């Protein structure tokens, strides 16, 4: 297909989406609209994996509210038991796409999270909304933040205390490591870390398998409700408006199904916009997610933090200015190159990468801004950022803007050397 044919195909896709506007169409009409042109999705059914966490919400809402049908596809969410299961099914093709950890996808591309696989990030599903929980046993000893935790750990043999995250190259590992290191605790020499699937965090802390963990909601709120832990830090206190889960897939799937990929992004982005449109929509989302098919938990564990209403379980309450976000005028979902590059700097910092990677090139080939832009244009009302990089300031005052990533990776006082 020549360049002119590609441009015509893209214009037809965008014109079809724009013509639909915000209206909810009957599936039959939508299928007819797609059949009229060459932009009909190659697949009509798209299997998308998810882990039972609050931030799977855009996928669930896209399927339940009919945003998928609007773009000629049927989204089939499939609940998975662990991030390792998501990885394996995504790589094998059992899943077409997935709600997945940012660092897991990048780890696969680099061969440090499993067998090397060319991957694609279609969009960011959410920013913020994770937490670091410490046990009430520590709280009873006066350990409520990093400084007192460092003092306690320093008085014990290395590896005495165990902390959990959800996947070796995942976001939760990186938030936990960053938070600990900012307090002067080396996560590779001072403590022991283990991998635990999100739904099993609370149970494992209850039986004493670890004194701290980093995970998504509602499991931090659940630990408070069960009186076994308290929130020592939110992930947004580590990095305000950080990227979290993404809509990931294999690069080959995108190449084989470009129209399906765009339709999927359209549906999920519209669902994200619906969630963020009002507090009532967020409350309804919490009610939906609490059901057995999704998170199978109490609505009360979800609603507060969905609305940014925080109680850390240790006497502090606040309205969080950087609570979980799904849309924010489309800015949340944009697959910033600098976001992906940040995870590469942390892989380098912690010895997961033995040599400096080509940061910009890796982010450019994984983060599919082209597909995001096509979908955003089809939906309408979204202004794409003019740049592929953004600037952020993390908890230790470190400024990250994507420039000189190797220097950034190597400037930290605490890092894993010789790995």
TrEMBL record:
Pfam family, one: NMT1_2
Keyword field: Cell inner membrane, Cell membrane, Membrane, Signal, Transport
Domain of life, source organism: Bacteria
Organism: Kluyvera intermedia
PANTHER family per the UniProt record, alphabetical: ALIPHATIC SULFONATES-BINDING PROTEIN-RELATED, NITRATE_NITRITE BINDING PROTEIN NRTA
Signal peptide limits: 1-32
InterPro entries per UniProt: NrtA/CpmA_ABC-bd_dom, TAT_signal, TAT_signal_bac_arc
Family: Belongs to the CmpA/NrtA family.
Name recorded for this polypeptide: Nitrate/bicarbonate ABC transporter substrate-binding protein
NCBIfam families: TAT_signal_seq (TIGR01409)
Localization (cell): Endomembrane system
């Amino acid at each position: 297909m020549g360049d002119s044919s590609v441009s015509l195909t893209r214009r037809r896709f965008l014109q079809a989406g724009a013509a639909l506007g915000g209206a909810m169409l009957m599936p039959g009409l939508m299928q007819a609209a797609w059949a009229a042109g060459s932009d009909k999705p190659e697949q009509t059914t798209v299997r998308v994996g998810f882990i039972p966490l609050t931030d799977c919400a855009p996928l669930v809402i896209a399927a339940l509210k009919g945003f998928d049908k609007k773009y000629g596809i049927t989204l089939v969410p499939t609940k998975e038991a662990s991030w390792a299961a998501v990885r394996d099914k995504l790589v094998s093709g059992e899943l077409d796409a997935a709600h997945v950890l940012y660092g897991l996808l990048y780890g696969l591309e680099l061969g440090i999270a499993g067998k090397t696989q060319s991957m694609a990030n279609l969009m960011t599903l959410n920013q913020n909304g994770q937490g670091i929980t410490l046990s009430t046993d520590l709280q009873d000893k006066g350990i409520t933040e990093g400084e007192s935790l460092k003092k306690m750990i320093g008085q014990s043999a290395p590896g005495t205390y165990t902390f959990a995250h959800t996947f070796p190259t995942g976001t939760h590992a990186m938030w936990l490591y960053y938070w600990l290191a900012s307090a002067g605790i080396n996560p590779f020499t001072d403590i022991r870390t283990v991998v635990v699937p999100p739904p099993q965090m609370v149970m494992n802390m209850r039986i004493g398998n670890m004194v701290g963990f980093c995970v998504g909601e509602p499991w931090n709120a659940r630990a408070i409700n069960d009186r076994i832990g308290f929130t020592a830090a939110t992930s947004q206190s580590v990095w305000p408006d950080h990227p979290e889960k993404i809509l990931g897939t294999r690069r080959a799937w995108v190449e084989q199904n470009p129209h399906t990929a765009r339709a999927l992004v359209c549906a999920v982005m519209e669902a994200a916009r619906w969630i963020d449109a009002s507090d009532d929509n967020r409350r309804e989302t919490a009610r939906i997610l609490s059901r057995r098919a999704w998170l199978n938990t109490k609505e009360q564990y979800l609603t507060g933090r969905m609305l940014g209403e925080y109680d850390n379980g240790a006497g502090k309450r606040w309205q969080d200015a950087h609570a979980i976000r799904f849309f924010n005028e489309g800015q949340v979902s944009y697959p910033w190159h600098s976001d992906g590059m940040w995870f590469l700097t942390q892989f380098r910092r912690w010895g997961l990468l033995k040599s400096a990677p080509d940061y910009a090139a890796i982010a450019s080939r994984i983060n599919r801004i082209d597909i995001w832009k096509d979908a955003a244009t089809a939906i309408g009302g979204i202004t794409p950022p003019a740049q592929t990089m953004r600037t952020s300031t993390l908890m230790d005052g470190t400024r990250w803007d994507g420039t000189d990533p190797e220097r950034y990776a190597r400037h930290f006082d605490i890092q894993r050397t010789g790995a």
